[in-house]
Specification:
The complex is a heterodimer of chains A (287) and B (309).
Chain A lengths: L1 H6 L3 H10 L2 H18 L1 H4 L31 H37 L1 H15 L3 H12 L3 H27 L3 H8 L4 H9 L4 H24 L11 H8 L12 H24 L6
Chain B lengths: L1 H27 L5 H6 L5 H11 L5 H15 L12 H36 L4 H15 L2 H15 L11 H31 L2 H8 L4 H38 L5 H10 L3 H29 L1 H6 L2
Classes of the chains: A mainly alpha (287), B mainly alpha (309).
Chain lengths: 287, 309
């Protein structure tokens, strides 16, 4: 009786129930939701436009009218941080999508076909991985030039090997199972087997890695902007704002607090959510 | 064992050749004509063309690549900087000591602080210390190094005046940047040490040792830590790679004349031979560290040693 009852829950629902019990992960999810809402409704939330200058009110410390203060052009820092969430989330999600699709495909093909295909793909991934990821992103961004699109491509490519490895490892474990053999026996095409039968079964590690990957992408993108390789002014990007605030650290130190806090909070929420998902999806912990 | 090490070193050669190929390709697709950068904006088209010819830029990609690799392997020559006209190798060599000093200091701080925290947390699981340090660890992992660096400068240089905000000339200079660079690693090591030790603590043989009446401190250090070291050493290796990437940001914040800052400045000036050389150097360092880590496994775990043939 009890067993029958448990079977009615889908894996997604079961995972979510377990995730709900993890308070830290729920906190992460909450912050992330707040961020997404901020990004969507930035026009409504921000009291000023992100590039509205007001030189009479420049260098204003946090006060009632400007809760995060204003920068050297009198632009409202709170509004810029709010608009900055759009850029960071966009970079994070698109870069990870690039990496998951490209890395996943490479890993799946390598794991499924094995032999020299596997060897070729995975040795290529080894070579890419022997350049530290941040450094690779910096080199790609340097080659492509500054700008939002290039930033996403650079960060995305730098994370491809991670996903290729994870997907390959999962595919190797799944392709030997009976249901795959059965699908092959009835003459299903390789591509269909991969997409319909194998990949859905290795989603769990991809989801966990992707959550942590968004954090890595946002951090790397902000770092690239910080050293002047990412988004160009006046677009409000958190890393670029910090880089700018650095010049005023002696006299207007509030300028370097809030953009950094926004980055740290975003990364923190993604990290705890990723950790929570890992625990929730772990078959060893599942009862 | 020696055969294994030799095999790994030989394997490094094709890897580094391919890394060179990737970096060389990336630098060759950048916008802007290197010849124009060398001769300057005011030079005539003929001068630019003559410079292109003398720099060998009109040759096909693979010819240029092979020439680069040949110079690198035969003469240790990484080309010439477009801006300063100095050999890239010389520029990197003069910047390298700062980067090595900074990364070593950061990893040492991380090991000395992170691993003991992890050990105490594991032996006192769910205690106040454990909960507190693990939350702190999560915050540490989430701190962007460039923000942490700014905060450290703000607090310890601008406000308190304890440490200088830039440069790397004395011991006091090293502390802030090394701490900024190492914080993430401290957190990673503490978390990894804790979880790895917790797995060992539950094993039967630990219960046996305890039943024999062994002192608790010796159980923790000799039996638990020793057997939990392999995953810890693995993350030390991984973190070293992240650290080398982070050093680029750290050197920029603290105005340290290391390889990372050299590269960032070179990117801004479109001085690509320097960027190329910097990436190659750091990647080689990364590969060598991974090799050392793999060799270290053999000394930590006899089971792994028997596989190294």
């Amino acid at each position: 009786m009890n067993q029958k009852k448990e079977k009615r829950y889908s894996l997604t629902r079961e995972t979510f129930t377990r995730l709900m019990k993890n308070r830290l992960a729920m906190f992460g999810l909450f912050i992330l939701c707040v961020l997404v809402i901020t990004a969507i409704f930035a026009d409504q939330i921000a009291p000023y436009s992100y590039d509205q200058m007001d030189l009479l009110n420049a260098y204003k410390a946090p006060c009632k009218g400007h809760i995060f203060g204003t920068d050297e052009f009198g632009r409202d820092i709170f509004s810029r941080v709010v608009y900055g969430s759009r850029i960071s989330l966009k970079v994070g999600f698109i870069a990870v999508s690039i990496a998951v699709v490209a890395g996943g495909l490479l890993g799946a093909v390598a794991g499924y076909y094995g032999g020299w295909t596997d060897n070729l793909i995975m040795r290529a991934m080894d070579v890419i991985m022997s350049i530290p990821a941040t450094l690779l992103a910096i080199s790609i961004a340097a080659a492509l030039g500054a700008g939002l699109t290039n930033l996403m491509i650079a960060t995305g490519i730098a994370s491809i090997p991670t996903y290729a490895r994870i997907v390959r490892a999962s595919v190797l474990g799944i392709k030997e199972q009976e249901f795959v053999e059965a699908a092959r026996a009835v003459g299903t095409r390789d591509f269909t087997i991969l997409c319909k039968h194998i990949l859905p079964n290795c989603l769990a590690p991809i989801i966990v890695q992707a959550t942590l990957g968004v954090a890595f992408a946002i951090l790397t993108a902000a770092g690239l902007s910080f050293i002047g390789l990412g988004i160009e002014p006046p677009t409000p990007e958190w890393g670029a704002m910090l880089s700018n605030a650095r010049s005023y650290i002696r006299d207007y130190s509030y300028m370097c607090l809030f953009p950094g806090l926004a980055i740290a909070l975003t990364i923190f929420s993604l990290n705890v959510l990723g950790d929570g998902l890992r625990d929730a999806l772990d078959p060893k912990l599942r009862q | 064992m020696i055969k294994y090490i030799l095999k790994r070193i030989l394997y490094l050669i094709p890897v580094m050749l391919l890394v060179t190929l990737i970096v060389f390709f990336l630098m060759s697709i950048t916008k802007g004509d290197p010849a124009r950068i060398v001769v300057g904006e005011s030079a005539s088209l003929e001068e630019v063309e003559a410079m292109r010819e003398s720099m060998g830029l009109n040759d096909p990609f693979f010819v240029r690549y092979l020439r680069y690799v040949r110079d690198l392997f035969l003469h240790g020559d990484l080309g010439t900087s477009y801006k300063s006209g100095l050999p890239v190798m010389k520029e990197i060599m003069s910047a390298l000591p700062s980067t090595i000093k900074l990364s070593l200091a950061a990893i040492i701080i991380a090991i000395l602080v992170g691993i003991p925290i992890g050990i105490i947390s594991a032996t006192k699981q769910y205690s106040f210390f454990d909960n507190f340090t693990m939350i702190l660890g999560l915050i540490g992992i989430s701190m962007p190094i460039f923000w942490l660096g700014l905060l450290l400068i703000l607090l310890f240089s601008v406000r308190l005046g304890w440490f200088p905000p830039s440069g790397l000339t004395s011991f006091r200079h090293v502390i802030l940047p090394a701490f900024a660079l190492g914080t993430q690693s401290i957190a990673v090591f503490a978390r990894m040490t804790r979880s790895s030790m917790l797995e060992v603590i539950r094993q039967d043989y630990i219960r046996t040792v305890r039943a024999k009446g062994q002192k608790e401190s010796r159980i923790t250090l000799d039996h638990v830590l020793r057997n939990a070291l392999v995953p810890i050493v693995t993350v030390v290796g991984i973190q070293f790679g992240n650290l080398l990437g982070g050093a680029v940001l750290c050197e920029t914040i603290f105005s340290i004349n290391g390889v990372g800052r050299l590269m960032v400045d070179a990117i801004k000036q479109r001085d690509f031979p320097v960027v190329q050389g910097g990436v190659l150097f750091i990647s080689l360092a990364f590969c060598l560290i991974n090799l050392i880590i793999d060799i270290a496994y053999a000394f930590l775990d006899p089971k792994i040693k028997s596989q190294y043939k």
